[in-house]
Amino acid sequence: MLIVGDNLKYLMKQHDIIDNPNNFDQTSIALGLGKTIIHMEPADNSKETIIYYGENIPEDYYRTEQLNDRGINIPPKSCILASSNETVKIPNGYFGLLQTKGSLARLFVSLTCTDGQVDPGYNGNITFEICNHSNFYVNLKPKQLVGQLFLFKTSTKQIELYNGKYQNAIGPTKHKSE
């Protein structure tokens, strides 16, 4: 069951789900863009570089950038890692699903590469895998509302709460091998 309206507003307050209660949006919780961006590119700019899933990625493939008020121009057909400006806490008995704000999606920009689930017990910033699928540069500014988090009631509270490798994230998190 999707939690909406006054039930969502009450749940947000009762469980301190987000550190900014003004992000309530009737059917979801609006999420803003954080100030830290991670670019991932080969260290030698070679197009032949292979990354192996499940293995560590060399640190020199990552470049971290702090955004100023002008934000970031995301080039066409490119991707970055970013995060929610807000810290999110998903209570036991609920499950979060991240979606791109509709107005941003209509620019052919997505916040997730299908990794939009937020498990019960998760606490931290939510990492966005932002992909610009368009043929245009798209500018995003810090704190600009880019995502929406939908909360669903789970069928039971009898599950192990999330305590995985991305717990307590501050800013975007890089790939972590299994």
Automatic annotation (TrEMBL):
Cross-referenced Pfam families: DCD
InterPro entries cross-referenced by the UniProt entry: dCTP_deaminase, dUTPase-like_sf, dUTPase_trimeric
Organism: Peribacillus castrilensis
Gene3D superfamilies, A to Z: 2.70.40.10
GO MF, one annotated term: dCTP deaminase activity
Protein name as it appears in the record: dCTP deaminase
A Gene Ontology BP annotation from the UniProt entry: dUTP biosynthetic process
Assigned keywords, A-Z: Hydrolase, Nucleotide metabolism
